[in-house]
Amino acid sequence: MKSIQDIRIRFIGAGNMAASLMGGLINKGITASQMTASDPGQNQREYIERQFQIQTFDENNAHFGMPDMVIIAVKPQIMKQVLEDVAPSIRHTNPLIISVAAGITTKQIADWLNTDLPIVRTMPNTPALIGQGAIGMFANQLVTQAQLQMTEQVMDAVGTSIWVTEEANIDAVTALSGSGPAYFFMFMEYLQQAGQKLGLSESNAALLAKKTAIGSALLAERSPESLQQLKDRVTSPNGTTAAALDSFAENHIEEVIEQALTAANDRSVALSKEFD
Ligand SMILES: NC(=O)c1ccc[n+]([C@@H]2O[C@H](COP(=O)([O-])OP(=O)(O)OC[C@H]3O[C@@H](n4cnc5c(N)ncnc54)[C@H](OP(=O)(O)O)[C@@H]3O)[C@@H](O)[C@H]2O)c1
């Protein structure tokens, strides 16, 4: 496997996630000529060519070349159809396959391509669209050490990635970070609403909720202290924070969150079966 400065990447599907990866890779010094993409949407292709000067095609097998890595970035519902379509080109070139599609297993990908290939299944989240994603990744047994490193470099272009060693753990990643942005948006929304009920204007409450979330997240990232230590630091005995945390505890917030993640995990397991 070559260095990331020399690899050739083919994108199948050039929507939001692919565009974020392209932008992140160009920021990392990958040149547009190292990448090609296919997508049926003319507007999307024109956008990609204008924005990144990456050559695009309306047909998945067109000018396929000899890519080292093929990034499949289409909706899960059409993965089977797209992989069966592009299988001859992929079988001919034997690249590393990276999928960003939620709920599609490495076995399904291999079955639909009708061949055994190195496959990495990733689970990004929507902050990846602004380069701040949290990404879980699983590699099948055929992925080499060099390909693992290459994948990390590519996915780190849109955030921070971690590996899981069991594919089933991708369901837990989906429950935590894949769906996670919605939990934080919801929490901010409820903070805003509660602030308004206590007399703040809508705009002030919204701004305070968002800035508190951003500041807390950055502090958690930059501080050497654990989340619990950081929480304890804000909480003086008998103070305002203690009153709020006691109220959360009385309402069993820990169990509520655990149940919610379990529900998301179970739904992720069920969805994978639906795509079969
Ligand atoms: N967005 C996220 O933050 C996020 C997070 C986690 C995972 N993902 C995963 O990333 C994948 C892509 O999501 P996205 O948000 O980037 O969706 P998207 O913006 O809709 O991109 C998908 C692209 O694929 C194109 N397409 C449709 N049929 C195709 C075909 N037969 N061959 C090639 N391309 C085709 C679509 O074109 P048309 O629009 O013309 O149909 C669209 O441009 C999904 O599997 C999703 O599960 C996304």
Could you please describe the fold and organization of this structure?
This protein has helices spanning 16-27, 42-52, 79-93, 106-113, 145-155, 169-178, 180-197, 202-222, 227-234, 240-250, 253-274; strands at residues 9-12, 35-38, 55-57, 69-72, 96-99, 119-123, 133-139, 159-163. Strands 3-2-1-4-5-6-7-8 form an eight-stranded mixed β-sheet, sandwiched between helices. The two termini are 32 Å apart. α6 crosses α11 (253-274) and α7 crosses α8. The chain folds into two domains: 9-166, 3-Layer(aba) Sandwich (Rossmann fold); 180-272, ProC C-terminal domain-like (ProC C-terminal domain-like fold). It is elongated and about 70 Å long. With 276 residues, the protein is of the alpha/beta class. Bound molecules: NADP nicotinamide-adenine-dinucleotide phosphate. NADP nicotinamide-adenine-dinucleotide phosphate binds at residues 12-18, 38-41, 44, 60, 73-76, 78, 82, 100-102, 124-126, 128-129.
What descriptors fit this protein?
276 residues, Rossmann fold, ProC C-terminal domain-like fold, 2 domains, 8-stranded mixed β-sheet, 11 helices, binds NADP nicotinamide-adenine-dinucleotide phosphate
